[in-house]
Specification:
Elements: E1 6-8, E2 14-15, E3 30-31, E4 34-40, H1 48-51, E5 58-64
Antiparallel strand pairs: 1-2, 1-3, 4-5
Bound molecules: zinc ion.
The site of zinc ion (ZN) has 8 residues, from loops.
Length: 65
């Protein structure tokens, strides 16, 4: 599967393919080298969100290299 979206190395937020900086935390440390993701639509109701330090709804990469 070709995946050209960019995951943030800082917060794991999955950004669009043309992103220059992370929409979630503003970091410019983005990478195409990531695997798997979870969609967290309601961080306040999610059990995994606190574990991943997620407070913004969105897609988050599970593994970022
Ligand atoms: Zn980020």
């Amino acid at each position: 599967m070709a995946e050209d979206r960019l995951a943030c190395r800082e917060c794991h937020f999955v950004n669009g393919p043309d992103a220059q900086t992370c929409e979630n935390c503003g970091s410019s440390s983005l990478t195409e080298d990531w695997a798997g993701y979870v969609i967290i639509p309601h961080p306040e109701k999610s059990e995994i969100a606190p574990e991943m330090n997620v407070s913004t709804p969105g897609s988050y990469a599970l593994k970022v290299r």
